[in-house]
C-alpha cells in the first residue's frame, strides 16, 4: 500500500514510539543513505512503508 503520511509525520510517530534508532539503522544499512529524501521516489516509498509496518507492529 502507498504511504499516505508525510515523511516528517511518520518520523515524528517513530520518535514518539521510541524506535527512531531502527529508522536510522534500516535507512543506513539497507538503503545506504542517511536521509529518505536522498532515495528515489520508489525506494523512499518502500522505506516509508517498511517503517509504517514496524510502527504498527510496535503499537500493538
Detailed description of the structure:
It is a single chain. By secondary structure, this protein is mainly alpha-helical. It contains 3 helices and no strands. It has helices at residues 7-16, 20-31, 41-59. Helix 1 (7-16) packs parallel to helix 3 (41-59). The longest helix is centred in the last third of the chain and has 19 residues, at 41-59. It is globular. The model has no long low-confidence stretch (mean pLDDT 91).
SSE layout:
Layout: H1 7-16, H2 20-31, H3 41-59
- The helix content, as a percent range, equals 55-70%
**Largest sheet entry:** none
**Using only CA atoms, what is the Rg?**
11 Å
Q: In whole angstroms, how far apart are the ends?
A: 20 Å
Low-confidence stretches: none
Instruction: Please provide the ordered H/E string of secondary-structure elements.
Output: HHH
Q: Give the oligomeric state of the chains in this entry, treating copies of one chain as homo and distinct chains as hetero.
A: single chain
Tell me how many strands there are: 0
Give the percentage of residues in beta strands.
under 5%
Going by helix content, strand content and strand pairing, the class is: mainly alpha
| C-alpha geometry | globular
- Structure annotation, total helices: 3
Task: Summarize model confidence as the mean pLDDT.
Answer: 91
